Amino acid sequence: MVDKDFCLSSYMAFRYVWKKEVNFAEGLTHELFCPIAETERTKVASAEEIDREIQKQFDKLYEKYRNIGILLSGGMDSAILAAYLKKGSHAYTFTASGTQVFDKDVERAAAYCNKYGLNHHLVEIDFEDYKSFTPIVTKRKGAPVHSIEPQIYKAATMAKADGVELIIVGESADLIFGGMDQLLSKDWRFDEFVKRYTFLEPDKVLTTPTGTNELFEKYRKGEYIDLLTFMDEVFSIESSSSYLNAFGAAEMPYYDPYARLIMRDKLDLQRVRNGEPKYLVRELYALKYPEREIPDKIPMPRPVDKIFKEWEGPKRAEFRKDIPMQQLTGNQKWQLWCAEQFLNNLD
User: Fold this and answer.
1) Hey, what long-range contacts does 181-184 have (CB within 8 A, 24 or more apart)?
2) C-alpha to C-alpha distance for 229 and 213, rounded to whole angstroms
């Protein structure tokens, strides 16, 4: 089924097209990530159990792959996974000249590599990369993409050139172990959550927007929303599909050890809300890096604020002429820019 208006509105609101059967044009299909079934995950209830199960996974991976690399940020999740790599493995950290968005990542990642003897590579990201790689990842996806996808693609191609056979990522830890502390901060009323979670309101930027409440309504519980189920079934697809597509476009296999785990005990929301997001992962980080303070959560940075600071906005007829560009974040401007590039390539 083709419905360009729905697809544009879904992308603006959720950063992906949530209906698998609906596409931008004839001949296009988009792929959505399918989470690993809970029955296929290993239950863990302590940092020691997570440590043991991740080590088992790496032992099996090294039976198949000789050269395993990692996307290494400055946060806990990938730092922990770096501890299981063999000395001399390749680690890739993003950077962007003329910005400070990656400074903490680079500094911390360098320390992790020094501790475990990893070869540290910096992946420089600039506007030329976005212009070069965005058409590649959008073509594979059949839709506009998340702003992390072009830079993941670049890192994957660098890794291939270094002979890496598999890339490790720690993308699922936030979802599985209670790391989304801002979203988990309270029990959200339905309308309040819709406003909070919508990334860019379609009616503010599109000439023919469609409603986006249909997806949210599936998780309504009276005046509130079933937050944890929403995160498991919506956020996981939006986030993980970006990795699936970017690595797929580069023809580079990737693996997320956290995705194979599940908490045995119910998430303790009070601990999360009292300042201990990912409390089990924090404990494991302390085991792997007793000499370091536990770092604050750092989402994968993107240099979009600087790159799109002076961008005047889209010119195509699908977009409104009165978009308040000065009120938009860099990531929101990216969505508009990416959508316009995608539509231009469809013509």
Assistant:
1) 181/272, 181/273, 181/277, 181/297, 183/227, 183/231, 183/235, 184/227, 184/269, 184/272, 184/273, 184/277
2) 16
Q: 90, 168 in Cβ contact below 8 A?
A: no
Rounded Cα distance between 29 and 340, Å, is 18
CA distances in angstroms from 166 to 31, 73, 169, 250, 308, listed in the order given = 21, 17, 10, 12, 33
Q: What is the pLDDT of residues 216-228, one digit of tens each?
A: 999 999 999 999 8
The pLDDT score that the predictor gives to residue 51 is 98
Predicted confidence at residue 298, as pLDDT, reads 64
Residue 70 zone, left/alpha/beta (φ > 0; ψ -120 to 50; rest): beta
pLDDT tens-digit series, residues 286-321: 999 999 988 876 666 678 888 898 899 999 999 999
- d(C-alpha 167, C-alpha 92), whole Å: 10
Average pLDDT over residues 217-245: 91
The dihedral through the CA atoms of 322, 323, 326, 327 has a sign that is: positive
Hey, CA dihedral for 292, 298, 300, 303, is it positive or negative?
Answer: negative
- Asked if the model's pLDDT at residue 123 lies above 90, the reply is yes
